[in-house]
Amino acid sequence: MGTPIFQVDAFTNRLFSGNPAGVCLLDKSRPDEWMAAVAQEMNLSETAFLQPIDDGYHLRWFTPKVEVALCGHATLASTHVLWECGYLKTNQVARFHTLSGVLTARTDGIWIEMDFPAKPPIEVGSFPELEDALGVTAVFTGKSAFDYLVEAASQEQVKSLSVDMQKLRNLPARGVIVTAGPTGKYDFISRFFAPAVGVDEDPVTGSAHCTLGPYWAGKLGKEDLVAYQASARGGEVGVSVCGDRVLLRGQAVTVFRSELCEN
After folding, report:
1. What is the pLDDT of residues 98-131, one digit of tens each?
2. How many whole angstroms separate alpha carbon 261 and alpha carbon 1?
3. What's the rounded Cα separation, in Å, for the pair 34 and 43?
4. How far apart are CA 236 and CA 61, in angstroms?
5. Staple partner for 133: which of 167, 170, 215, 241, CB 3.0–4.6 Å?
6. DSSP strand E in the chain: where?
7. CA–CA distance from 208 to each of 182, 188, 189, 203 (Å)?
8. What domains lie within the chain, and their CATH numbers?
9. Is 46 one of the catalytic residues?
10. Residue 158 CA to chain centroid, in angstroms?
11. How far apart are CA 111 and CA 226, in angstroms?
């Protein structure tokens, strides 16, 4: 038997929307080079690698270019696979040991709820080079542990960005979050660009909401938020800010399951 591998659309309940992630279930340790090669072969924004340990799973995430320290949609996809395939019962909490500490996920009705660290932005002031790369005038510019956060004046500006990927690629950060809100049913919308790690635009970025949640909770004076990432595929994210933690809620659907051949 080969190594089980799945493709899952995360932060959606419909096939071919949300953010696709690879999920690879390991029965033994694998070299970093092997995991990087699998991620390159899958050619998705992230592929997750899960290995069982005594009190949960060791979880790592790779883009086609690098390993990352935190990924929401591939964690959501991993949790979905563990429950759907019977590795965990749906009333069991999924427990992941990661580069960002221990993360957990549980079912909440039709939703999967993940407990992640908050990564609030710190204001950095005027940043003309970043505004030029995005083609937008910033209302606010900040930086979290991972990314720059830029608030635009309107959701229309976020949706119609003209981004210079080469300029973003040279910034000293994993990626750039652009956001605006609220209007309609959503407290805020966003888009996420990370060409420096091999992902020009990520369809729905759970980890970005670890920054967006605290930012918009402070601006709007509310802890429970509903967000939409306005990429071409799009996806909805529920966000609750709880001190230094952020609860992220989403759904997922399996696109295919297969196995990697062993050479």
Report:
1. 999 999 999 988 999 999 999 999 999 899 999 9
2. 8
3. 14
4. 21
5. 167
6. 3-10, 19-25, 47-53, 56-62, 67-68, 94-98, 101-108, 111-117, 122-123, 140-143, 147-151, 175-180, 188-194, 199-202, 224-229, 235-242, 245-250, 252-260
7. 17, 13, 11, 11
8. 3-116+249-260 (3.10.310.10), 122-243 (3.10.310.10)
9. yes
10. 18
11. 13
Residue 263: which pLDDT band, with cuts at 50, 70 and 90? low
Report residue 243 as tokens.
């001190």
| pLDDT, tens digit, 9 for 90 and up, residues 20-34 | 999 999 999 999 999
Active-site choice (46, 151, 201, 236): 46
**Which residues lie closer than 8 Å to 154 by C-beta, 6 or more apart?**
180
User: 142 vs 191, 204, 234, 235, 263, CA distance in Å?
Assistant: 15, 20, 24, 24, 47
Beta-bridged to residue 49, according to DSSP, are: 24, 60
Instruction: Compute the distance between CA of residue 133 and CA of residue 167 in angstroms, rounded to an integer.
Output: 6
